[in-house]
């Protein structure tokens, strides 16, 4: 066959087989075209390439452009199959006088036509062509060659059709399409806009896999888009606002991109805009805040003004959306504004290296208070049928972030909302428990560029714990929380979260939020122990909690890096034991003995004797494990010492157990080995309290203390009560 015949065959897409013409046809009469059927028969019976080309030409003459429907396409496929296109795509020799891409172009045209059928687009014979098709996107050639352009269009149609199948994105990513698309876009050759559109689709469908396979190339695209965004002076900057969130990596965003993005956003948001122009910019800013915190905002006057502008705009948007009843809320925009408000809360409460000046903080707290008022107003209208919607969860999240830092303002409104918050948290907790999907409960709500699905199981309690910790100190809110059953819910939640840290679970993959939630729960329970002791005694859930604390502490105190949680558990358990001292579980059972032995270990290992430079006498110093976290630990340690002291007279078996642990002897030995001047008065008082109660409770303890020079040590430290106690028979 001559080159002219090949060229004619290469045009058959323009007569009906090219990708751009493979749209659904106008349905004709049910009877088939006899001429077309005869030509299709010839195509099926062709014995060589020349006959196949000739038959294809006849088919294209019988079918005018745009007249191929799905059934006809399928019959053409049945006649041609994949063998012929496969040969066209892989052949390396073209007839004399023909460009080498003519055969490949015809092969791609056939594939593009077949891919109009979703079933064929997912066929293995199409999927295994992905690497070959990807190479066509970056192949060099005459940019004005019409045949080459048609081949590129057909290639994009094939890849787009594959992307539309259920497993298509995964196959494209594995076939190297992401890198090819990035290079095609960065080259700005023919079809580069199609490359960007297909990249957007792949990132939306399989973001993690895209970044895993093509991170360097995707970062190069992000750099190009960021630079374009920073320079854009026309409407394209608003289009880029919508594209850029999809190209932000799951890891670190390059600093040069952050500079360009911040500069571009500053110009946009500093202008007078309509909502359709402003909203994409707010969503992009929210994604940056979610990914980078405030690190993308420059320090100095310009940065502080920009941050203040962001938060002010977000608060205005929230109020406009939530205060007006009867209007449809743009949930994706308001959720983005929540993220910016959360950034504002963090910066307003930061004492060191805050981007904001004090007057700016005061102003932002005022506007955020008004926006939070609107959030509370919205949540008051939420009915049971909407409680599982992601936007409600996002609204509870921002309220939780506010309450974690500020509970004095909007007190009346917050108290009115507390019953809803307890019911809401209980609903989500119980649903997540039934689904046995504990991993979802510790997830955070991502600021996604797309609208979330219809349901979003979330851990609302985790978000509310810090605020409830503050509120349980106050009489009014605490009474509401107790009345609504919050303590029982918190006990169940604590036990469930604790299960995640138990043997059999890989604690190395647990998010930090699990341990933080456990610590915050302990703080709430500590508040209740102090302010509502009757509740601890009468509510059965606290008995279950006490049993868990006793069973867990012995192993916990032995684990590296979990000292702060152990301190919370030990102190809470000691305070609860004082209230539940008549419980059978505390009457010298193995669990109770193990718990108090572990508590003694925590309390006794906090300080050591350390040599002092230039002195013959050692000084009392913090143990290495305690030293780095003592600021967070010391209040719990002193409270634990006080609680242990209170348990000694209530539990007759405790003093002999403490004596067997040798804690009182080692404590006196420690005090005797250091300079009294190195021991602070509050430490002396704490040590004396424990020693006195142990001495009063048990004669053998008194004798052991005397043998350890207890009277002399008491005199050196002016422990009058201990001296008097040891002087008694």
From TrEMBL:
GO cellular component terms, A-Z: cytosol; dendrite; glutamatergic synapse; membrane; postsynapse
InterPro entries referenced in this protein's UniProt entry, alphabetically: ARM-type_fold (IPR016024), Neurochondrin (IPR008709)
A biological process term (GO) from this entry: regulation of neuronal synaptic plasticity
Pfam families registered for this protein in UniProt: Neurochondrin
Family to which this protein belongs: Belongs to the neurochondrin family.
Name of the featured protein: Neurochondrin
Species in which this protein is naturally found: Balaenoptera musculus
Lineage: Eukaryota, Metazoa, Chordata, Craniata, Vertebrata
